[in-house]
Design brief:
Chain A: It comes from Coffea arabica. Chain A is built from two helices and ten strands, in the order H-E-E-E-E-E-E-E-H-E-E-E. Chain A is of the alpha+beta class. Chain B is elongated and about 85 Å long. Classes of the chains: A alpha+beta (174), B alpha+beta (166).
Chain lengths: 174, 166
Amino acid sequence: MSLQVFRHWIPTVKDAFDRTLMVAKFFCGLHVTNTFLCTCALAMGPSMLPTLNLTGSLVLVERLSIRFGKMASGEVVLIRSPEEPRKVVIKRIVGVEGDAVGNEEATAVVPKGHIWIEGDNKHNSRDSRQFGPVPYGLLEGRVFWVMWPPEDFGSVGRKVENNSLESSAGCQKT
Amino acid sequence: MSRLFQFVRQWKPIIKEGFSQSFLIAKFLCLLHVTNTHVCTPVLVYGPSMLPTLNLTGDVVLVEHLSQKFGKVGPRHVVVVRSPENPRKTVTKRIVAVEGESVTFLVEPALSDRSHTVVVPRGHVWIQGDNIYSSRDSRQFGPVPYGLILGKAFWRVWPPDGFGSL
């Protein structure tokens, strides 16, 4: 009698299995796209003002540039934090290997295989000025587009947008 | 025009078959890649820096990626690390100290007895090759961020007389 019950459920189980496999294949494809092509990231915090919001910006990150060739100075990148390996931060590359970074008081040369990152908001950013140059291998991707909030929708360029304090409230887009 | 249709009709099943076989191979490679990147992969290591643990001329070791994701990689483990000097290169060394610990090492063991002590900063590890006379490691390029660790080598597959855990 138990065999009858078993035979009754076989098509349902087969169907469930096929659907699960299809969902798994979709997630596999999504994962490969996210890891090697393009992914979204939610950026929060004050360190990249005015380029990115304090309360959260949804950005698109592409992963091809970091593999094929070197990143250039001025790009906004997603990078694994050298202080907290589980955290991923967004900063701007200010110097690549061989560049001299710093101001009149202190200058440093970025060593081979490393990059110097700084947040756009110099007053409230924990970056290479605190933890030194970062190995290139920690780069995760390049931020190239802001999706949200709608007023910031658009590409992320190589230069910091001019935002003079004397102007009226809000960012001025160049 | 009808010749073209005939041609297409002749080739259609072959093209369809070609596509479905390619998809099958692509799906297999996808699964192989995901396993290699996130679970376990074989790696060929060579060079003198890890003698006598690993051979000079090349050993195949199995590297698992799960330990470093869960933060379970620690001292005495042999790890594969992305080189901080050349991001396209991966090196295999042993973790000597983790964040917060202090390391005392010989600066140039072949030339002098001078030693130096360093405290490993937060989020970093100190790696050294077992063959300190011929190894380029944290003694030269400093502590390495934990995020550069790719995986832990736990088993040697080749050569056969070295088969076994590391």
